[in-house]
Design brief:
Length: 182
């Protein structure tokens, strides 16, 4: 690959990451009311970002989610959100490998989405269990709502991974996906 093509690919990755960070932010800010609170579409966008960007989804996941926390008035969650959501994007991006035909099977998409959402549930439980936050008993109260949000993300994201439009934008198939930009 020539230097010019490499620069163009890096620019594309940065642009996609920026747009996807904005979509993660918007998805997080769109609240869907439920009987026990609300859910948002931020995790759904993280999973879709991982499908498009591969491991580089760390950046839109971490940045979009953290900005949403800061602007919603939850600065105490900013560092935890940056790490938890960033790790979600990274892990999903690494695990959503395609086969020789460039496809990812349904079972892989479902299992990767489940693992990714379990990272979110466990991460926030661990953070909220800390003594300077709420403690273990109170943190247990967030497990079910986070599980509901995780389920909504999986149910919404996996079908979106089959939208042909996303295949056109997929960067994670390229060989120099991480090396060229980090």
């Amino acid at each position: 690959m020539s230097s010019k093509e490499n620069n163009r690919n890096n620019l594309k990755k940065i642009a996609y990451a920026g747009v996807l960070a904005a979509l993660v932010f918007i998805g997080t800010e769109l609240h869907i009311p439920t009987a026990i609170g609300h859910i948002n579409l931020g995790d759904l966008m993280i999973l879709v970002s991982s499908y498009i960007l591969g491991p580089l989804a760390f950046f839109p996941a971490a940045i979009g989610s953290t900005l949403a926390d800061l602007l919603a008035g939850y600065p105490q969650y900013a560092v935890a959100t940056f790490l938890i959501k960033g790790i979600m994007g990274l892990v999903a991006g690494v695990l959503l490998k395609r086969n020789a035909e460039g496809k990812t099977h349904l079972v892989r998409k479902l299992s990767v989405s489940l693992v990714t959402e379990l990272i979110m549930i466990a991460g926030y439980f661990a953070f909220e269990s800390l003594p300077f936050m709420y403690g273990v008993e109170a943190a247990l109260g967030s497990v079910i709502p986070n599980g509901i949000q995780a389920s909504a993300a999986i149910v919404g994201a996996v079908p979106l991974m089959y939208v042909k439009l996303f295949d056109k934008f997929q960067l994670s198939q390229q060989k120099s996906e991480v090396r060229g930009i980090i």
